[in-house]
Amino acid sequence: MNTLARRLAGAALLSAGLSFGLATTPVLADTPKDTLVMAWQFDDIVTLDPGEIFELSGAEYGAQVYDRLIRFDVNDVSKIYGQVAESWTVSDDGKTFTFTIRDGIKFHSGNPLTAEDVAYSLQRAVKMNKGPAFILTQFGLTPENVDQKVRATNPRTLVFETDKTYAPTFVLYCLTADVSGVVDAKLVKSKEVNGDFGAAFLKANSAGSGPFVLRQWKASELLSLEANANYWGGAPAVKRVLIRHIAEPATQRLLLEKGDVDVARNLKPEQFEPLRGNDKIRIVQAPKGTLYYFGLNQKNEVLAKPDVRKAFKYAVDYDGMAKTIMNGLGTVHQAFLPKGFLGALEENPYTYDPAKAKELLRQAGYPDGITVTMDVRNTSPSMDMAQAIQGSAAAAGIKINLLPADGKQVVTKYRARNHEALLYQWGADYQDPNTNADTFAANPDNADDAKAKPLSWRNAWDIPELTKKTAAAVEERDAAKRAAMYQELQREVLETSPFVIMFQQTEVIAERSNVEGLVWGPSFDSNYYWKVSKK
């Protein structure tokens, strides 16, 4: 067993010792200088395929392994820059985007990256029609027309055509999303099985051109990345990144303090201050466009009643959680657009009022209260939040039975609309307000076999009129008018929806002080390891 393996084995033993109360734990050395070791909760990963990734942890993985056509500046999201694209132009009618592809990029396989690879990647995502495909199909792309609408006219030129005129920045922001990750067409096509577009292969393998290469993924256990020494932007300073799924914040903290991991991602608020006094550790805060919320499935006839939906909004002790569980991890935010987005509404009309919640339940025909099950990811702070909501709701006449499970199980159940209530996070897919409006305020088809499956669909909220308003907002090219339209949408969702949006996340990361160069952006897919080094 090599040195690194011994350290990881020791760390695993340490974790086991904490779990089972063993009296002795090994004393471990610092991690190797050429390796970044991270403790994180990534049990939500379902797949590593950029055409299917739709979870926060998967999105962060994709950002390390796959280049995209374009990206945005993490310090100023209004600035969009080319990554695989060297430059681009937009036609006078705003419907044709022509990209010049950067020369000299190679995939991890050694194959050259061309416009054909970019076109195939986007075509593939549309034809597979997995969760994130709607980011592309909203521009009128279908499996039948995508080969004509998204095409390479030569090895360095990509043409992307939309069905009508949209705000140009909206189209460009969508092309910064995870689903635009460029895959090695030659490699992926060679791995196709029964017309699956190589999905079975990419579920646990990589075919990118980014600064890191996937070496191993064990669900809810280990994610191992190796540096791409031939990366066109410059080789990473570290040779590998090892990410361990550590569910317990207390275990993460102990591993960090002992030097067995370089980064801890899921600490609790009460752990921050003691660590600030440790000169070997720094605390980093990164505001995210990520919301904590819970949804109520409208297939349930009790939860479908408007007064019951509103009762839940008065059954949450927002301020109490903000001062304890979420202290430093997030701020109270009840509208579906995070702060920083065009048209974001900074109004929080709901406060904890159990008497009002009880009255609303009585008006709905439930004077003795109701009982509901809530699915929740078995990690921090989700479980702490769920238990707090369980307690505050009980005083409001709502009995909540919690059903904890790992993230993969929870999200799979959610996508099948088999929950009653479910607590989860939602992260913006791109830096345009439509990213959240299209999921919280639109549901074009509420059938079980619908093609588009936004959060409104997952909660069976049938909203044809609101869907029309959302579609109109994305076509408005005047920024001020567009912002006003989104504010109106947010107020209607606040009033009538089955969503109880509670907090906007601040990611708090604890790093060993010898770690430099990690980038913590406004979304999980703008967290970057490429420039990390260790003194």
TrEMBL record:
Pfam families for the chain: SBP_bac_5 (PF00496)
Residues of the Solute-binding protein family domain: 79-446
Gene3D superfamilies in the cross-refs: Dipeptide-binding Protein, Domain 1, Dipeptide-binding Protein, Domain 3, Periplasmic binding protein-like II
Signal peptide: 1-29
Matching InterPro entries: Peptide/Ni-bd, SBP_5, SBP_5_CS, SBP_5_dom
The protein, known as: ABC transporter substrate-binding protein
SUPFAM superfamilies: Periplasmic binding protein-like II (SSF53850)
Naturally occurring in which organism (per UniProt): Azospirillum formosense
Family statement drawn from the similarity comment of this UniProt entry: Belongs to the bacterial solute-binding protein 5 family.
Keyword entries, A-Z: Signal
